[in-house]
Write a sequence for this structure.
């Protein structure tokens, strides 16, 4: 089995089933760290465990193990610029709606169940606490954002081009996925440990991608800012704040905003034009 391909399919199947990484690991009797490594293709998974995962997620084993991507099944996104509609299991969709409107602490399990068209006992059957739902949503957010930013960065030739692509990617994500971006920015404080530190580390990793490109551009003399570290922080903060004001009913499309923010970012680092 191609462990990277199988890992990607396992992650997508888990997300489609609405299970968190931790709940999946518990159900399959592995640590959360091991399951994360499996999903990211860093360690192999046995055939028996693939079969157990398939049963847990409600998919056929062949979907997870076929040597090529089956047409129409768990199809990957075309590029990091493409944003198909977000499809969430009803409990996660209900939680996302409630957390955005009411905040994590202002939401109740009953609020979430009503938005998911479920009974409270029905919701509790798979999601014992609000915390499990919040962790699942932030895992989904960071998983998608990390994959997109890594893909965007890989397309660039030179630090300035990579910097521009990272800004574009961050701006597109925080407009197209503004609800996920909103709770990602506003509800980190509501996470319990160890999930808070784990997800914070992923956020820091994205910041460091931008830091590295700005630092290298400065070293090469391509930009003029005397404060590359601070400029890189300002650019990322600017992008992550988009969900607090941008609206799909407004005059600017995500692509418009991304182009504007690339220009803002270049101005911040004093790129000569």
């Amino acid at each position: 089995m191609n462990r990277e391909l199988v890992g990607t399919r396992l992650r997508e199947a888990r997300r489609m089933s609405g299970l968190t990484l931790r709940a999946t690991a518990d159900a399959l009797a592995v640590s959360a760290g091991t399951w994360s490594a499996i999903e990211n293709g860093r360690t192999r998974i046995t055939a028996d465990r693939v079969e157990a995962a398939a049963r847990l997620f409600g998919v056929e084993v062949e979907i997870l193990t076929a040597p090529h991507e089956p047409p129409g099944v768990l199809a990957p996104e075309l590029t990091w610029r493409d944003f198909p509609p977000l499809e969430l299991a009803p409990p996660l969709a209900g939680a996302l709606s409630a957390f955005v409107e009411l905040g994590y602490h202002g939401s109740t399990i009953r609020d979430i169940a009503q938005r998911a068209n479920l009974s409270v006992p029905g919701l509790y059957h798979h999601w014992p606490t609000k915390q499990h739902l919040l962790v699942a949503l932030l895992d989904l957010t960071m998983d998608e954002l990390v994959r997109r930013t890594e893909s965007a960065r890989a397309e660039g030739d030179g630090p300035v081009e990579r910097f521009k692509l990272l800004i574009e990617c961050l701006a597109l994500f925080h407009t197209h996925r503004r609800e996920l971006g909103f709770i990602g920015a506003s509800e980190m404080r509501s996470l319990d440990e160890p999930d808070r530190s784990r997800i914070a580390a992923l956020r820091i990793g994205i910041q460091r991608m931008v830091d590295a490109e700005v630092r290298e551009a400065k070293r090469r003399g391509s930009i003029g800012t005397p404060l590359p570290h601070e400029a890189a922080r300002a650019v990322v903060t600017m992008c992550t704040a988009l969900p607090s004001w941008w609206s799909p009913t407004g005059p600017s499309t995500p692509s418009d905003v991304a182009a504007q923010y690339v220009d803002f970012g270049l101005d911040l680092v004093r790129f000569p034009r």
Summary: Residues 5 and 267 are 40 Å apart (CA to CA). Confidence is low (pLDDT under 50) at residues 69-75. The chain has three domains: 3-65, 90-128, 132-268. Residues 132-268 form a domain with the Tetracycline Repressor; domain 2 fold (CATH 1.10.357.10).
